[in-house]
Design goal:
Arc Repressor Mutant, subunit A, Serine Threonine Protein Phosphatase 5, Tetratricopeptide repeat, 5-stranded parallel β-sheet, 13 strands, alpha/beta, Rossmann fold, 9% strand, 622 residues
Length: 622
Amino acid sequence: MPVQLGPLKQRIVLGLLLCRPNRIVSVDAFCDALWSGTPPRTAHKNLQVYVSALRKALRGDTEQHALAGSEPEQVLVRRPPGYLIHVQAEQLDLLRFEELARGGRLAARNGDSTQAAHLLGTAVGMWRGPALSDLATVPALASEAEALEDRYLTVYEDWCQAELALGHHAQHVDDIDELARRHPYRERLRHAQMLALYQSGRQAEALAQFDAMRQDLVREMGMQPSPVLGRLYEAMLRGDDSLEPRAAARAKPVVIRSDHTQLPGDLADFTGRVADVRQLTAAVCGASSSHRGAVVSGLAGVGKTALAVHCAHQVGQHFPDGRVLVRMRNRQGRPRPAVDVLAELLRGVGVSGTLPRALDERAALYRTQLADRRMLVVLDGASDESQVRPMLPGAGESRVVVTCRRRLVGLEAVEHLDLQPMDEEEALDLLGRLIGPHRVAAEPVTARGLVATCGQLPLPIRIVGANLAALGHLTLAHYARRLADERQLLDEMVAGDLRMRPRLDSSYLDLLPPDRFALRRIGLLADSAFSLHDAAAALGTGLPQAEKAVERLIAAHLVVVRAWQSDAHDPCYRLPFPIRVYARERAREEQQPEERGGDPERERPGERGQRVGTPAQHPAVL
């Protein structure tokens, strides 16, 4: 979400901090940047005001981290003799740029030109033009921008060296030529320009560039080109065989995943889902040319990613050119722009250098790269059709698996798989694998209550199982009593970095405001099972409007169809228990008047005895 950064001086403070991330910037440095060495008497007080305003502007990002399940951290802090801003590589392009550059240079030193070109090219592709362009009139920041430009050019030169070592001169010669003309005295850049021209069969132009640079240096600085550039010129004159380009090899795809991780390993205790595995495997490995893959949809915690990864490992022999998994959401659970995801995919299949900026152009390049390959692309956590459509393979044998919380009914040529909660036997089997089957067998009724409390969803079952495994001295009944208070349930569903609430937060924020309201109101019903009449009474609408609202929640996999009533005209619906608890929690927190006022025991017309706002009956203590 864009943040309003305030007036010029406030932006200067932030600009200086971000130019020196995770390092202390002294008060004197701020004063010099803000007032060019002549600060007013109130300079320190003014600086405090700017810092305070920036903290408020940045607080939204901190709150998003808290929403995602991490502890909120003060981003901008006082550290004598100045201030310091805490940022990570995924939050600041400069840090990510430097991280990629270090990795690329290390690969080059180790003789891996392919990996060096990939990493350095990714860093180069992050450059968006002049840094701090709106602060160019501030001398202190103008010098910082010049330093950033110099760092970019150095990485660009490193990347050119790696690309030319791979024989990729033809596709880069014009870009190198343009940049060398803008920076005529950078000798490494001139070296790359001359070599790219020479290897492209433009020897006369390569020699002319050296002559032009030599004349400019003598005229402007009274000096000759460096010995390295001189030796290249002489080698070109005598047609040295060592300058002949090596054959360009097709880059091998790199198995990647966002956040700098690898394709995750298969779960050793993956349980059940036999029919789902069979259906998904057939969708991506079948001979049908009409299907380009599958969409696995389901509610938060139902195991969509686990199923996709499990199948990706099962079908590896069908996709010899690689299997790629990319996260479609950022760490705060918000959707990533499709153009950024495509950049990651293109780097993953071996495309280096500057990428096209337009979404359509990147999508076309991506499909071209997949056309003669057999790859499986897993797009994990998609938000909607528009985010996914540019990443569907075109012609060829590559396939895609999309995981999503809602049904992407608008996608063409894909098979749809709605992943449901586990049945009770599968859920108990998974719990037994986590805590030992003997503990489940010793307390079968309580074990059934625990998996019901988890909504028979794999993620909360894994969380409960991990906690029970660590607390081997507790009986299941004792642990179930800790889960009995629904106001504490989601706080208890935490095991290390496994957390249920952030998944539910993200699902809730994906909804439009009317659907959030509907979820809260339905969550306040006295029973998790409800009819359209119950929903209409809770929402205060007629049956047609209530039916539309419920169908939107079904599409978001927050409501499931439980059964049909005996008259075959009135379906019965259900909120899985963790979702119902979350909906009631949201209703309490957001405190809409119609959700907190009145007598909670009051019956509404048309509810047929159903009451709104009464406590939930807890499965774990049945």
